[in-house]
Design goal:
It comes from Spiroplasma helicoides. InterPro entries: AA/rel_permease1, APC_superfamily. The protein is mostly helical and 555 residues long. The chain has a single domain, classed as Up-down Bundle (Amino acid/polyamine transporter I). The protein is 75% helix and 1% strand. The chain contains 20 helices and 2 strands.
Length: 555
């Protein structure tokens, strides 16, 4: 194993799981879409996706042949699928995350606004511009979005600075963020169970078993295709543990400690997701969350649950607290995601495939130059998101929402890459257990290889379903507006193809092409050497023949 200092404890890994994977925001968003069914889907997802992913990650991390690697998704897939497969898995993971920052960083800023101001200050700013006739509705929304993007850029650069400090600094931040996340989730559940439900009872819109029919709810309106395209993303809310694996070498007591801590952390996360979704369904209706709008609902649920008006002194105080705690969780999550995918990608890709300058790493495997380049790219993305934002309803004068078509389309195009990376990951594990099960390692998912292969095969089916329904618009979309449906298909599927083709081109240009050129040069050198040897032999033969003729003449 590496001789570098091990600075992360089991508790750090547990809190890192909270900060990176658990989010009250996930509970609210999925309850808004799936209602009562969300808690069941969270439970199923935990059993067939989240916990197996922890065990797979720990097993890969314990492979003796990988002791000198960074133990991330890239090195796992290189080992199981070959160099090209490992590179493409890391490539899809990394570029999918770049646009994720364009939602996480602004959300964290909005949480800070609720924490210090008690409201979404950017919505208020938009409304002020409109009320005072300073700008049109569209320009008001765009200006507010640009200011939000500016603060998000500043926060992201702060995360980049922390990331360059290495895993110890990240451990401090994620400990704080993970603690905040745990406190927020536990408090919500405790208040709901011991106050809201006993005092106020179950909310009037709850219909029991009938609410399990999410397809015919207001969210999907009978569009089963839309439901199938949305359902897998609930499972992907558990993604993150495969990225945390890059810190196995920084964990005290190694892979066994990491395995124990990550299983504990993920189990608690699954439990909080299930119970939190259940109590949210019982206390607050989907319609109420829709009326609040995402992301405001993430903060307004707390005073509502306690029975306080959001404008009352008590309600405002609770909103401030919820905003601050959510912001701490968001900061921990953002700073981690700033560092980990970059570390996975640039420290584990084949040598020089992304260039020497970007691939240069420090003693912790952290690529400083790549972090700077990433910050510049994310800055451009956030700036473009701000500039391209418009009002959802240009004629609205109140409750104005802003949106960026650029961001929405970009996320649609890159979220499919999240499926691709996990397809490589689970297929790599299946191949590892099927073809290389005698490989020396410290821990196993399950001793008998049949059970984990079956679990991973089920996951691959889910991933295939997610990709198919996620890329192809629903029949309702085609019948309503065939032109727009065709554009959406080309953008989503074409975007995925474009990013993967760019990765293949980068690999060919910097690896395959140079390797073939090197072989060609070596063959050329060999031919020259053969010719030279042949010339020497011919010269020697001529000399021998001349000497023999001379002897014959003398005789």
């Amino acid at each position: 194993m590496s001789s570098r200092a091990k600075s992360l404890t089991k508790m750090t890994i547990i809190f890192m799981s909270f900060a990176i994977i658990f989010g009250f925001r996930n509970i609210v968003n999925n309850q808004n879409q799936f209602g009562f069914l969300a808690c069941i889907l969270f439970l199923v997802g935990g059993a067939i996706y989240a916990i197996p992913m922890v065990l797979i990650t720990a097993e890969f991390g314990s492979v003796k042949k990988l002791k000198d690697q960074e133990a991330g998704l890239g090195s796992f897939c290189v080992f199981a699928l070959g160099e090209r497969g490992g590179f493409l898995a890391s490539w899809s993971s990394y570029f999918g995350n770049l646009f994720f920052f364009a939602t996480l960083a602004p959300f964290t800023i909005i949480a800070l606004s609720y924490g210090f101001y008690g409201k979404n200050g950017f919505d208020e700013l938009t409304q002020t511009f409109v009320d005072k006739n300073m700008l049109s509705t569209d320009d008001s929304a765009r200006t507010s979005a640009c200011i939000l993007a500016l603060f998000a850029i500043i926060l992201f650069w702060a995360g980049t600075y922390i990331s360059k400090k290495g895993p110890k600094w990240l451990g401090y931040v994620t400990n704080i963020g993970g603690t905040a996340s745990l406190i927020l989730g536990v408090l919500f559940i405790l208040f709901a169970l011991f106050y809201t439900l006993p005092v106020h009872g179950i909310q009037s819109d709850f219909r029991g078993v009938q609410d399990l029919d999410a397809v015919n709810s207001e969210s999907f309106e009978g569009d089963w295709w839309a439901f199938m395209s949305a359902f897998p993303w609930l499972l992907f809310g558990y993604n993150g543990i495969e990225t945390i694996s890059v810190f196995i070498k920084d964990t005290k007591n190694g892979v066994k400690a990491f395995k124990i801590a990550s299983i504990i952390g993920m189990s608690i996360v699954v439990g909080l997701m299930v119970v939190g979704s259940l109590v949210l369904t019982l206390t607050i209706s989907q319609k109420q969350i829709t009326d609040w709008k995402i992301p405001n609902a993430d903060f307004l649920v707390f005073p509502y649950m306690i029975g306080l008006d959001e404008h009352s002194a008590g309600g405002k105080a609770i909103i401030h607290i919820a905003g601050l705690v959510t912001a701490l969780n968001g900061i921990g999550s953002l700073f981690f995601w700033t560092a980990a995918p970059t570390k996975v990608f640039f420290s584990e890709t084949p040598k020089n495939v992304m260039g020497k300058w970007l691939s240069k790493t420090d003693e912790y495997g952290m690529p400083h130059n790549a972090l700077l380049a990433q910050a510049i790219v994310v800055t451009v993305i956030l700036a473009v998101v701000g500039v391209t934002s418009t009002a959802s309803d240009p004629n609205a004068t109140t409750n104005i929402e802003s949106s960026s078509k650029f961001l929405m389309k970009s996320i649609d195009a890159t979220t499919t890459l999240a499926i691709v990376q996990m397809f490589y990951y689970f297929w790599g594990y299946i191949r590892f257990r099927w073809k290389m099960d005698d490989t020396e390692r410290g821990t196993r998912f399950f001793k008998n290889k049949v059970f984990p292969i079956i679990i991973c095969s089920v996951t691959l089916v889910i991933l295939t379903v997610a990709f198919f329904f996620g890329c192809i618009p629903s029949p309702k979309s085609w019948s309503k507006d065939p032109g727009q449906a065709a554009i959406d298909f080309l953008f989503i599927f074409g975007g995925c193809v474009f990013f993967m083709a760019a990765g293949m081109l980068a690999y060919w240009f910097n690896v395959d092409r140079k390797a073939r050129k090197s072989i060609s040069v070596d063959n050329g050198n060999s031919s020259d050497e053969i010719s030279e040897i042949g010339a020497r032999n011919s010269s020697n033969n001529n000399s021998s023949q001349k000497a023999a003729s001379k002897e014959a003449v003398e005789q």
